[in-house]
Amino acid sequence: MPSPHMQKNSDKLAVTLESDGYCIVPAVVHNELLERMHLEVTRTYSAGETESEQNEVIYGTACPSMVSEAHQQWMSGNRNHLPLNRLVSQMFEIASDLLESRDELGCGPAQIAVREPGVPSPTPHIDGYSKNEPEPNTPRAIVGVYLTDVLDKGDGALMVWPGERAAIANLRDARRFDEAEKIAKACGEGNAGCRPLLGPAGTIFIVDGNVPHANAARAIHGKRIAVYLRVY
Ligand SMILES: O=C(O)CCC(=O)C(=O)O
After folding, report:
1. Helices in 115-216 by DSSP H: which ranges?
2. Range of 25's domain?
């Protein structure tokens, strides 16, 4: 049972998520788990040799073996053995509390998103839209956690444009998918509605699935590491 104080915080965050399209949960992940994950990612990370491997790291996930092993264990009900799944459990639980649907929610595999200076990164888009599918498979929400400090946009922040959420949701309901995508692609860093999500390592954030988002290029030396989970 959460304490009344924790419950109140969670209620406030749920209201913020509903009204603003995103919310930030201040650093809640234990240092020990953060350090362990950081170590595992840096130990196994490779930017890829071929162009297709590099694109998979940029637009799919880094550390694919770690991600697929964790997802297999997760799907078989073993959710606390691997460090990635301990982190995913915490992200999933927070999302379930804020979206108030613990029983119905599911999630895809985690994504490990490593961003380095000078390497391309995702431009504004909405998740789940694919030229190969007749309709988008948009997640209800994207849950992210930074494993490194992101205190400034140039640290490689996730940027969101929550003001476009309603128009995109309406277009989606009207099955005008191309127009929804066009709105997302037109989002720019210079727009007044652009919000970089900032916080020290351990910060968790939740973004409504209809909110366009992108990565702000990392402008400084070193890697920005985040883990993302899409909940459906
Ligand atoms: O790395 C990031 O912060 C953004 C990742 C992203 O937008 C994506 O992979 O869909």
Report:
1. 165-173, 177-185
2. 4-231
Which parts of 46-188 fold into alpha helices (H)? 51-55, 64-75, 83-99, 165-173, 177-185
Query: 122 CB less than 6 Å from ligand 1?
Result: yes
Q: Are 144 and 228 a contacting pair, CB within 8 Å?
A: yes
DSSP classification of residue 28: -
CA 72 to chain centre: 20
Q: Could you tell me the distance, in angstroms and rounded to a whole number, from the CA of residue 8 to the centre of ligand 1?
A: 30
Domain count, the chain: 1
**Ligand 1 near 194 CB (within 6 A):** no
CATH number of the domain where residue 35 is located: 2.60.120.620
Q: How far is CA 43 from CA 39, 66, 203, in A?
A: 6, 11, 22
Using one digit for the tens of pLDDT, what is the confidence trace for 41-68? 999 999 999 999 999 999 999 999 999 9
Q: Among 83, 37, 41, which Cα is nearest to 74's?
A: 83
